[in-house]
Amino acid sequence: MNRETLKIAIAEAERFIARAKAVPEPVSVPKDWLKASETFVDDSIPPKDGGAVRRASMDLTRALADLRKPS
Description:
By secondary structure, the chain is mostly helical. The protein has two helices and two strands; from the N terminus they run H-E-E-H.
């Protein structure tokens, strides 16, 4: 482990957290659009946002693996 790999891992962790926090909140349909017994919440993550989070996760995984390698 050296300081450079540690800095890279920290940067990747921060980028992952930023991407994960940027995912939009679930969208709920107003109750007056539905029948009284129905509720609907779209809790899916848009593909563009999901892909960005997955990519940041993979980059973080790689940086952490590099961090664990003996120098």
